[in-house]
Amino acid sequence: MSSSLTIRPARPEDAAQMARVNVRSWRETYRGLMPDAVLDDPGFLAARERFWTAALTDERYRENRVAVAERDGGLIGIAMSGPPLDAAATWARQLYVLYVSAADHGTGAGRALLEAVVDPGESAALWVADPNPRAQAFYRKHGFVPDGTVQIDDGVREIRMVRDTPHGR
């Protein structure tokens, strides 16, 4: 792709486009892993837009870092990290969201978004769908390893991956 990629902090006015990237990515990634009723729910887009509006404006999310990837004036990726919700967490950040449109996989957008919301030297953890070999390989490349913890969320099996030590470039 010749057009340039821009990574920047998300703004409240991005919420609608962020919701579209979020829903499209879920449909591309989780079809067959998650019930179609969830992915095709007519209220899904509006619910995601409300979530992103809150994430970008509500005081409760003030410690979160939210970034977007933009190409040709449109958003193609979104990412969000924040303090871990798990009281027993031994890591500094939790990666809550990292989605890049399938058409932009392999363009560097994912790496740039990850680094925008989780410093390369920061310990961090994330949940990733299992099976999702592409995403798991991406996170392994960036120093994350499965810690053996599994959960089921929205009917999807997820594994936790953790990066305890600073990760060099």
TrEMBL record:
<feature type="domain" description="N-acetyltransferase">
    <location>
        <begin position="5"/>
        <end position="166"/>
    </location>
</feature>
<dbReference type="InterPro" id="IPR050832">
    <property type="entry name" value="Bact_Acetyltransf"/>
</dbReference>
<keyword id="KW-0808">Transferase</keyword>
<dbReference type="InterPro" id="IPR000182">
    <property type="entry name" value="GNAT_dom"/>
</dbReference>
<protein>
    <submittedName>
        <fullName>GNAT family N-acetyltransferase</fullName>
    </submittedName>
</protein>
<dbReference type="InterPro" id="IPR016181">
    <property type="entry name" value="Acyl_CoA_acyltransferase"/>
</dbReference>
<dbReference type="Pfam" id="PF13508">
    <property type="entry name" value="Acetyltransf_7"/>
</dbReference>
<keyword id="KW-0012">Acyltransferase</keyword>
